[in-house]
């Protein structure tokens, strides 16, 4: 029996390793998004700074908050078996849940997930124990601490509201002081700003990061608390002078503030959130050692876990190992980059690819905000508005190459996040570092007017999606953990073993799928370079490259989908038809995103060229869209026919259709090759052959209509679907002919004289 539970404890530590890996991937956004978004240094340098902070925070942490031992449940009223059921269920749920969020690229709170998992597991066992208690003496309050869950929920609301308002206000004031061309507006203000920032971050490290360090004696903590005011004033004077001197020495003070802020938040994160990753396994280890040492052969169902009521200190080896794993995860995790990308993109200063779509609530918020802005514009005097607008002139923004926002905003993000976390700690509010840092970044981006009319609805939808994910985390963590705990409780070792296997399987499958996703979804380097460069000729060249890739991809997709959907109808393959129709819907969404990127690029090329190329760009884009609609009009009648098990298409129709399909496929492939190679020497020949193919299909349509007049009514439905295929095939030929002509006019710098007459043949 002891051997079995030793295996469970070992597995808990194995899950803790996975939890550290996925947890750091999730929480890296807390302390790295500002430095990464502002490009204050190379990504490797930012990683090194954050890694030092993470390792120092882990090693100096006491590593064990009592919440994992007795913060949610009252262990004296639970047996060893029941405690192990709860702890194993918590770890299985936590690892899988965090991995799902990381894969989706959404930041969530490890604190909330752990608390609500413990709450869910404890709640269900408490209910089961009360139902089975014949004495009737047990109550829910005897077995669980509901106050902790309530404080976490309150913390969510408070952190979201306070952080957003504070971020917006502080960034607005900071931008009025420094403006977007901050290098010309520093003078003496940078010393004061730097002094306030570094003092706040130093105080943050002392109060939040080092309060639980082993070398911090009670006397030291008491001295710091008694002399806090003197320390803060002394630090402010010293750092103000130091920052001003560094500025005179041509050192970028904002860069120092951002890197120091990254280190500070990383230190505090590791020191205070380590319990979210290893607290539960260590509680399980402590329960196991207590059972082995003191049970004296007692049954696992009757040995109560009173020992967990006491506080425990974590062995240094566990802290050191955790620090090494966290640094490794931070340096190697690709999912960390994915989560960081979500926050950075939502806070981006300039327009670009939007990760999220539009929602009704976001549209309503934007509409109301627009009305308020119009009211304020009428009320505020014109000279005041002009002065404010001069401070927010985005044409003067100073961005590092590829940066999403400038260093002023990055510094405000980190300093304000640290201050709010300090305030929350002193007020004993359970503010989540994830919530604070993310929402502060959203507030500062709003104050910087990064949410323009063209992007606001997408940014707000994204922010609401992330916030909604936080609340979903609590509900899902509670529900799933309660379910898993109950199943383990009734199925004993068999259930535990099954869930261990399920957790391992889901983690392995998730990582395999994520690796495949990374390979298939290549980074859009063309678009990134197009949005970052200032060279108009390079923008035009990159835009043409992007448009060419879009057109060739959709011609290739349409050609393959056309063959598949007609094969599905001929062979009565319902599964293939469903697959093609579903993929067509996905391609329509992808085309919408690509078109928005290309329109952003079109706005950045010289106006004279944009006017000239605008018509051909939209003709090509609309042609790609029409190809998809054409495939949809072919696929849906075919799917309905096959799904209803109607009579198949006659063989004579198949034999006359296949040569037409082969010729259409070959011409589409020649069109794709011509566009891909940017070689239009054979364009006239392809267009002529396409016109001939249209005539052939037209003749076949007339033949089919005559055949239907004489056909047996039992096969009329199949013939109607076949006639629809011919009509849409003829339309498909017209569409890709438009696409070829549009591509030719858009890509070339001259207008071929032989082309215009071809329009008359459509």
From TrEMBL:
Family to which the UniProt record says this protein belongs: Belongs to the inorganic phosphate transporter (PiT) (TC 2.A.20) family.
Keywords per UniProt: Membrane, Phosphate transport, Transmembrane, Transmembrane helix, Transport
Superkingdom to which the source organism belongs: Bacteria
One of the Pfam families matching this protein, by short name: PHO4
Coarse class of the protein's main subcellular location: membrane
Transport keyword on record: yes
Subcellular location(s) of the protein: Membrane
Record's protein name: Phosphate transporter
Topology relative to the membrane: Multi-pass membrane protein
TM annotation in the entry: 6-29, 41-60, 80-101, 113-132, 152-174, 186-207, 227-246, 253-271, 312-331, 410-427, 463-487, 493-512
Record carries keyword Membrane: yes
């Amino acid at each position: 029996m002891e051997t079995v539970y030793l295996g469970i404890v070992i597995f808990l530590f194995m899950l803790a390793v996975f939890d550290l890996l996925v947890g750091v991937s999730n929480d890296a956004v807390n302390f790295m998004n500002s430095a990464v978004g502002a490009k204050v240094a190379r990504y490797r340098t930012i990683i090194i700074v954050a890694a030092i902070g993470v390792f120092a925070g882990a090693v100096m942490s006491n590593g064990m908050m009592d919440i994992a031992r007795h913060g949610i449940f009252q262990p004296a009223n639970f047996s060893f078996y029941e405690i192990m059921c709860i702890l194993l269920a918590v770890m299985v749920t936590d690892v899988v849940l965090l991995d799902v969020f990381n894969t989706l690229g959404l930041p969530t709170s490890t604190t909330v997930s752990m608390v609500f998992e413990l709450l869910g597991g404890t709640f269900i066992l408490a209910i089961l124990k009360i139902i089975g208690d014949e004495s009737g003496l047990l109550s829910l309050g005897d077995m669980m601490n509901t106050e902790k869950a309530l404080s976490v929920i309150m913390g969510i609301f408070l952190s979201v509201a306070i952080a957003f308002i504070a971020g917006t206000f502080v960034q607005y004031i900071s931008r009025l002081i420094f403006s977007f061309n901050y290098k010309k507006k520093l003078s003496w203000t940078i010393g004061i700003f730097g002094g306030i920032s570094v003092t706040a971050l130093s105080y943050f490290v002392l109060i939040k990061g080092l309060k639980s360090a082993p070398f911090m004696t009670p006397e030291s903590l008491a001295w710091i608390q008694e002399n806090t005011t003197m320390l803060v004033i002394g630090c402010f004077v010293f750092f103000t002078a130091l920052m001003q001197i560094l500025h005179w020495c041509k050192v970028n003070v904002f860069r120092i503030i951002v890197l120091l802020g990254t280190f500070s938040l990383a230190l505090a994160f590791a020191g205070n959130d380590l319990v979210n990753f290893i607290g539960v396994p260590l509680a399980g280890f402590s329960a196991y050692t207590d059972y082995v040492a003191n049970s004296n052969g007692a049954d696992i169902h009757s040995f109560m876990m009173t020992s967990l009521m006491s506080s425990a200190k974590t062995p240094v080896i566990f802290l050191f190992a955790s620090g090494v794993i966290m640094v490794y995860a931070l340096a190697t995790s690709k999912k960390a980059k994915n989560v960081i990308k979500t926050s950075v993109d939502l806070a981006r200063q300039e327009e670009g690819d939007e990760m999220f779509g539009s929602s009704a609530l976001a549209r309503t918020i934007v509409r109301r905000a627009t009305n308020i802005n119009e009211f304020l514009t009428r009320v505020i005097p014109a000279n005041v508005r002009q002065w404010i607008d001069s401070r927010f002139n985005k044409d003067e923004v100073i961005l590092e190459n590829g940066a999403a926002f400038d260093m002023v905003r990055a510094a405000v993000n980190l300093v304000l996040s640290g201050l709010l976390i300090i305030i929350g700690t002193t007020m004993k509010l359970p503010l989540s570092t994830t919530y604070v840092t993310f929402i502060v970044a959203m507030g500062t981006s709003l104050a910087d007017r990064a949410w323009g009319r063209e992007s606001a609805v997408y940014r707000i939808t994204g922010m609401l999606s992330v916030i909604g994910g936080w609340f979903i985390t609590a509900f899902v963590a509670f529900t799933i953990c309660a379910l898993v705990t109950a199943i383990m409780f009734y199925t004993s070792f068999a259930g535990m073993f099954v869930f261990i296997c399920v957790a391992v399987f889901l983690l392995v499958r998730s990582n395999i799928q994520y690796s495949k996703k990374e390979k298939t979804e290549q980074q859009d380097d063309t678009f990134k370079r197009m949005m970052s460069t200032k060279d108009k000729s390079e923008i035009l060249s990159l835009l043409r490259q992007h448009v060419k890739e879009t057109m060739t991809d959709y011609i290739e997709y349409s050609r393959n989908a056309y063959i598949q959907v007609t094969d599905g109808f001929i062979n009565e393959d319902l599964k293939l038809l469903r697959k093609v129709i579903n993929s067509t819907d996905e391609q329509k969404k992808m085309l919408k995103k690509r078109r928005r990127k290309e329109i952003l690029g079109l706005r950045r090329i010289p106006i004279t060229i944009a006017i000239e190329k605008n018509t051909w760009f939209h003709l090509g884009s609309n042609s790609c869209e029409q190809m998809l609609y054409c495939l949809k009009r072919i696929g849906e009648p075919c799917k309905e026919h096959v799904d209803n098990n109607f009579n198949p298409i006659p063989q004579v129709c198949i034999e006359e259709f296949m040569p037409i399909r082969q010729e259409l496929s070959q011409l589409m492939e020649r069109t794709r090759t011509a566009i891909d190679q940017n070689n239009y020497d054979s364009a006239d020949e392809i267009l002529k052959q396409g016109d001939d193919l249209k005539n052939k299909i037209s003749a076949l349509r007339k033949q089919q209509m005559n055949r239907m007049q004489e056909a047996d009514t039992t096969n009329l439905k199949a013939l109607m679907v076949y006639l629809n295929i011919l009509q849409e095939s003829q339309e498909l030929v017209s569409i890709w002919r438009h696409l070829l002509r549009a591509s030719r006019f858009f890509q070339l710098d001259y207008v071929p004289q032989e082309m215009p007459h071809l329009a008359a043949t459509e």
